[in-house]
Request: fold
Amino acid sequence: MSALLGGAPVGQWFDSSVGSVDETTPNIARMYDYFLGGSANFAADRAAAEEFLRVYPGNTAWAQINRALLGRAVRHLCARGIDQFLDLGSGVPTVGNVHEIAQRENPESRVVYVDIESVAVHHARHILQDNAQAGVVQADIRQPDEVLHAPEVTELLDFSRPVGILAVAILDILHVEDPPGLVSAYRDACVPGSALVITNGAQLSMTPEERAGIDQVMSQTTTPHVTFRSPEEVAALFPGYTLLDPGVVPSAQWRPDEPISQEQALRSNGYAAVGVL
Reply:
């Protein structure tokens, strides 16, 4: 996996003016970038990611399944006529970016990424500098007023029209007192026809030993709490939404492009669902 961007180590192309960066504490956004073969990560992230893969080898499949689900969900929402997306906790944009998928389906699509991590934000700005219909906000998604009133959001997204809210692999790593309440704050900004996409980790094919290993690795990162949820708990994250078929299912089973086996579904080690207003 590459640790380079344009031939230069991340420390050489990163502009610290976008925010302070702790290069010594692993960050899940940069680790996820590493899992997907990206370049926006530091040595501490790579070491933690390799330890994560040692205790849980199935994480490679999880990352690929989760990313593929994101693509299918965005394409489906584009087919429903949604051409605006707010990607909460987007991480480091990498292969299969939301704006690439959405703008391939509809060139008029607009996308705003939101993340608190400085490297993720800087990298997003780097790849979006020539794209007038996509932007990035550096903010904590647990502060919805701050996110929704950020200039990049108000300039690019029109909330009088349907918006797709994406919360993919983020609610399970955030400490939130009232997750449905947080989701509702974003829902209340949206009009009928809008949608919400959520994925959340779950122990499907993962062994208890692997789960314990994950908890140990994550305890050393900037997001030490991991909350796995049952299908019922994931469904509860959609207050006011109507879930599209097939409801809450293992991520690989949400409207797959081709038939999959139960074994493949269990390798998702997470649930996915899409709801509409």
Notes: The first helix runs from residue 10 to 13.
